[in-house]
From TrEMBL:
Keywords attached to this entry: Endonuclease, Hydrolase, Nuclease, Nucleotidyltransferase, RNA-directed DNA polymerase, Transferase
Transmembrane segments: none
Protein name: Reverse transcriptase domain-containing protein
Reverse transcriptase domain: residues covered: 1-82
Organism of provenance: Pisolithus microcarpus 441
Length: 537
């Protein structure tokens, strides 16, 4: 095969796969020209080796004896050292990382991380360690290999020298997945319970959260850690002999599978996790230090100068007032403005003058004006009738609506909600059923409806419509409007049988009256199919 062709590796891989098709993942693993033969015992191993050599000879493929290793329990393959104890990194690759010179430019960082990423599954806190280094690779980031970056670089090299042995995954044994999340990272450990009863790690993962994920609440971050663990290790966790034991330090996740109310994000995760046989178990964080320590490292948290996190510009900072201070400040500003001050004074004075004039026309007001025996009712110096110190507003000439406009719609009022508006009104005014009046007024306020989010109970579950017993027993109808003018018709009445889905299209116009609509039904539907039991619009 000539060198330099872009599809040469793929073509050669397809060629060797066709040679060992029935042996792949049975006793042979092939990656291009690297062939690994494995067996349960020496007797079968000899047969497998002979069969592989026979097929190589049959297809005129040759293996150099100097590059081959036969009948070995431990072997180096594709950068890994395989042994009965588990999986470790190749010593040559580890030495290359240990001897890597200090980076001097962004390309050096990218080369180092690209080489180290291949072994990230061996490093329990890999993504947390490399955070300062990855920040240097971002677009338009200034080159500053600070002491923090140097510490991260040396710590990563040390982590490769002390990486643990990862045990081989064994199907049919209990599996444990431990996850944890902090404000800025998530992590997990995949372990199995070996036949000797020891729990040994199979793989690690840990990474910092993206900008949108930083906004998740604690519950969603902990659930994200579980979701990503099952997505990363899906080939291990699908179809286990025992339910996967998921250990988390967030107690609420124990009831996640039985929760009836989920957000859209949680529903997507729940749908994905439903394909796995798992049990979520709570374990206090103080007793589960391994994944917990991966997500709470000091170098993951924001530092001065980081662009990942918003920094406040001192020029944009403003003092924060309490509601009373703000109201007083606004009122003072309005009173300093001649036009607004005149408008405020005129509005209140005119309102009080109209209330005073309406007292003589109101039955309740006339009763208490003539009878001063009840101490709760008093008349002030301006001639206004007061109940418990508040001005009584008679139900005449929309006076109560004017009070609401002053206390709710006025610039100083601010379109508050029902309770706040009621409080503002009852400071000065009162009338019977004031609470109901204000509730209805605020609900009908268009400005509030546009600016505020409606909060209501969840809508009921959708229910399937009953299946009709026979054709044309139940129909639905609607109009197709805004069509091009065809002379006499501007719309189409569509009548559909809900059982057979047969449709009738009747030309009409958008100014049709009820008698005319009934005549169309009588002529085009009832005369042909009879009168239906149900009709839906």
């Amino acid at each position: 095969m000539p060198f330099g062709l872009t599809n040469a590796p793929a073509a050669f891989q397809r060629f060797v796969n066709s040679i060992f098709a029935d042996l792949l993942d049975v006793c042979v693993v092939v990656y291009l020209d690297d062939i690994l033969i494995y067996s349960d015992d020496i007797k079968n191993h000899k047969k497998h080796v002979c069969e592989v050599l026979r097929r190589l000879q049959e297809h005129s493929l040759y293996a150099k004896p100097e590059k081959c290793e036969f009948h070995s329990e431990s072997v180096e393959y594709l950068g890994f050292f395989l042994s009965p104890d588990g999986l470790t990194m190749s010593e040559d690759k580890v030495k290359a990382i240990r001897d890597w010179p200090e980076p001097r430019k962004v390309k050096d960082i990218q080369s180092f991380l690209g080489f180290a990423n291949f072994y990230c599954r061996f490093i329990s806190n890999y993504s947390d360690i490399v955070v300062p280094l990855t920040r240097l690779t971002r677009k338009n980031a200034p080159w500053d290999f600070s002491e923090v970056c140097r510490t991260s670089f040396n710590r990563l090299k040390e982590a490769f020298s002390t990486a643990p042995i990862l045990t081989h995954f064994q199907p049919g044994v209990p599996i444990t997945v431990k996850t944890d999340a902090s404000d800025y990272a998530v992590a997990g450990i995949l372990s199995i319970t070996c036949p000797d009863g020891e729990i040994r790690p199979v793989a690690f993962y840990s990474w910092t959260l993206t900008a949108p994920e930083l906004n998740y609440d604690t519950h969603d971050k902990e659930l994200l850690a579980i979701h990503e663990a099952f997505r990363t290790w899906r080939h291990y966790l699908e179809g286990p002999a025992f339910p996967v034991d998921v250990v988390t330090d967030h107690k609420n996740l124990e009831y996640f599978s039985t929760s009836k109310v989920l957000t859209r994000r949680q529903a997507r995760w729940s749908e994905y996790l439903s394909q796995f046989n798992m049990i979520i178990r709570f374990h206090p964080g103080k007793l589960g230090a391994k994944p917990d320590s991966l997500t709470r490292r000091w170098d993951v948290y924001p530092k001065e100068g980081d662009k990942d996190f918003a920094r406040a510009n001192p020029q944009n900072l403003h003092p924060v007032f309490t509601s009373e201070q703000l109201s007083n400040s606004l009122r003072a500003t309005y009173l300093e403005t001649p036009v607004l001050r005149a408008s405020m004074i005129m509005d209140v004075e005119k309102l009080h003058a109209d209330i005073k004039s309406a007292l003589q026309s109101d039955t309740v007001s006339k009763l208490h004006l003539s009878d001063r025996s009840n101490p709760r009712w008093q008349v002030d110096d301006d001639g206004l009738l007061r109940l418990d110190g508040r001005i009584y507003v008679p139900d005449i000439n929309d006076l109560r609506l004017r009070v609401l406009r002053y206390k709710h719609d006025h610039p100083l009022a601010g379109h508050f909600g029902q309770n706040r508006t009621l409080e503002l009104v009852r400071r000065e005014y009162t009338w019977p059923s004031v609470h109901t009046f204000i509730k209805d007024y605020v609900k009908s306020c268009t400005a509030c409806a546009r600016a505020k989010t409606l909060r209501h109970r969840l809508y009921g579950m959708l229910k399937q419509l009953p299946v009709p017993e026979r054709p044309w027993n139940s129909i639905s109808m609607d109009f197709i409007e805004q069509l091009p003018n065809s002379g006499t018709h501007t719309a189409i009445l569509v009548v559909v049988d809900r059982l057979s889905k047969q449709a009738i299209f009747i030309p009409t116009d958008n100014t049709i009256t009820s008698p005319q609509l009934a005549q169309l039904f009588l002529l085009h539907v009832f005369s042909k199919h009879g009168v239906p039991s149900h009709a839906r619009h």
